[in-house]
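To whoever is on call:

I kicked off a structure prediction for a single chain this morning and the downstream step that reads the tokens threw a length-mismatch warning. I double-checked the sequence; it's 236 residues and nothing unusual in it as far as I can see. Pasting both halves so you can look.
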Amino acid sequence: NHAYQIHELAKNDLKTWFSQVLTVDDTKAIPRDVLEQERREIIRLNGDDALYQQEYFCSFTVPLAGAYYANQIQLAYAEGRVGNVPYEDRIPVDTWWDLGINDLMAIWFTQSVGAELRLIDYYQATGEGLPHYAGMLKERGYVYGTHNAPHDIVVKELGTGKSRLEAAKLLGIKFRIVPRVGLMDGIDCTRSMFRKCWFDAKKCEVGLNALKNYRKEYDDQRKTFLDHPYHDWTSN
């Protein structure tokens, strides 16, 4: 209980501090024409104005500079599409899986309502087998539609001679294999569908942070972003 109280006090102190941070609009320290010139230069170098928003307007919701989905995420916050997105028990929940680096499994939970794609939940874990994820699905208590997995789920494991597709079926998880597309094609497809996405801010917090930080690799010598992702936990 004491640890929880300390955590809550620290969190409230941070909220108070954030609310007291002054932006360039508050201080009027830099002329508007100079700010606009700086913004254009940052966009020219980085492809977006995330760094500008962070440095001059103290924004804590914008992604990192060089993030692939910077503009899309900023628009989602601006339009109020990140907030409370409740589960509709009359509509099936689809899941989207990816096994990435360091054995980290990332799973999104979505519901399609009209033209909206509602991302109601997110889960990730590492070092766990499929029985763990089967149990997690049951604990969530959702009524499921399709479970979607990437093409590499059909690869047979050396230890068992079975693929994860076969192992999952034995646990009651029937996967649909998502068609394979190139890296940049996949990023472009994600950008194009972002406009219809709604995110539950609480349940999808970790997933949203991954999207905010999924970024291009930066070349320190040439001072420019490269045309491929920086590989870390966000790559999942």
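Update from on-call: the warning came from a stale cache, not from the record. Cleared it. Sanity check on the structure: The first strand starts at residue 82 and ends at 83.
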